[in-house]
Amino acid sequence: MGREGFSTVRVLVCALLIAVHGAQVKTVEAFELFNTEIADVENLLNAKQYADADSKALLLLEQALQQQQMSADTFSALGLLLQNASRFEVSKAIFNAALERYTTDGELNKMASTLLQLATSERHLSNYSIALTYVRRAMSIAQIERNELLKAKLNLELGIIQQEQGEIETALEPLKQALRYFRENNMASEMSVTLLRIGEIYSLLNQATLAHTYYQDAFDSIEETQETRLLGVIKTRIGALSLKTGSVDQAIRAINEGLELLLSTFDVGAIAEAKMLLGRALVENGDTAKGRELLQEAMQFADSSGQAKLVKEGRLALAQAYMKEQSFELALEEARTGTIDARKNRDLRGQLSFLSLQLSAFVSLGEFKKALDIQSVMQQLREVLLDSENKSAIEGLQAEIELVRQSRTLEKLEESKQLALAQAERENLQTTLFWSISLAALLLTFLVWSRYKQRQQTIILRREVRQQTLNLQEKNQELERAYKTLEEVSLRDPLTGLYNRHYLESQLPGEIRRSQFSAKQSPSTGKTKQDLLCLLIDIDHFKRINDDYGHIAGDKVLSAFANVLKEVFRQTDLIIRWGGEEFLVVCRQSTREELPEVAERCREMVANTPFDIGLEKPINITCSIGFSLLPPDREEDFDTAWKRTFAVIDYALYATKLSGRNGWVGVIETLKTPREYPTPLDTKFNFPGSRIATSFNNVASIKWPETLEK
Fold first, then answer.
1. Among 94, 181, 569, 704, which has the highest number of CB atoms less than 10 A from its own CB?
2. Which domains does the chain have, with CATH numbers?
């Protein structure tokens, strides 16, 4: 190579170094910016400005997802920060983002830890079935990775969930398994938490002495570590046990000690629980006004954090305080609200507790007919609860009987084994002398031969060990790929390869929250790409395809139709197979004015695409589309927003079908000012007015479903 060639190489190397340095500088700057933003969230939480902290965290999440520069570990740290401040709803969105990153990177242990954090947030929100699902997914990973510490933590979480669900005896087994591991590994904090939870179970079983023993063990195991928060929680639980056994003065002293410790920490959830317990104790002691004030303060926090269990306990205590003050109407109001909430959560014991308060309130007000009605409902609930408990007791008894039977069988087998060993030993003694002489002769020959073979065997063994190591590495890689494939399959439709409803349910809440938050930050929604667009697409006359050509041909059409949708929409859009021949598309980071253009592009692409079904000639199909902004009228609640949006696009799709198919009808936006002549769609969904777009002649030519029914 000549001098000119060397000069060119030097220039290229310098340019490459400059580019790499610039990229590193940008990454460092982004990292420092995110750390600053997270510190701002922490300061807002410490200042108890929870709404501002939630907004800041959601904005930071949106920025991180757009820029793709925040690491999964940073997401996880932010989620823990919010979770420790009892901001469970927002922490779920953060942990979901971390889980998505860890899944993409194939980091199984971190995936399992994030699933555990998600389970904890869901459990605090009383979403027990979802929490159990997360625990089971994490436990399967822990089994694959043989992560015993993670198994112990998951058993602790599983026991807590089962305890709060009312499965008290069932909860003891996983808690004791966790306790065994924590003791063997001298993990004082985790052991203390587990002992505390076991004590709570025995308290629920009305075994006060045993419960106090576990509480004291929990306190003693960490007394020297000076873990203020955990010590405060244990003190408050000891006070709650004293309150339950009628030692009110002792309870007030213990709870005050615990509350004083907790106030030096930032665990606002534990502080609220302590204030609620102290309020109950003061009410029992006759200081009703002060106790009620503490209960109301704790209830405000419970409502803001969404903790259903804490809300229920606070409402029960408030109703009891009103009864002591003879404010029967206020007590009745709290009891009715609590009954409704318990019914929604399918909490039979909670319903009975609130109905009992209603009964006492009606009797005190002299409304005996209503009291008799309440008594009848309570009797029915008791029968349902008794049936449930009897079923659980029978299942538990059967399990114990089976365990005893298996133990006795094992004992008999062991006795038989011992007898057989004794007989074999007697027979061996008779032949020991003969075999000793024979073996002595063979031993010398074997030693000479073994020295010769030793080197060859060593070489062969080394080769086999190397090969087995390579095989094990390949198996581990196959297991990781299989797990990723299993995760992917559980979220995708097997025929079309598109995402299914489960994926949509996991992604859509976060997307709606981010879109609504962006809309609040930037009111000029028509100019920035911050809207969510929702389109429901249906293949026209799909039944005819199945009837005329068979279901195999129909499956080919569905698969090819999915490929057309992938060409029409962006990779960042969510394309869901909703069911049958219906497909749902959610376009992220778009503007509402793009809706007609996107719908027409989809309709035209489908109409112009020949579909090969295995015949001599391909067939042509068309589709009908209904669309809307998601949500159409900026509902804050996710369930309301999604149900309302789906109803609107389904109604618009039906109108497209009635108007002739191969077209589209949809809502670009709803109006704040009522129109003089509202459309049937406005009337059906109580919109003041709406801006409707269609591929047909005009809005007046649309045949609405309600219009035809009339």
1. 94
2. 29-146 (1.25.40.10), 501-709 (3.30.70.270)
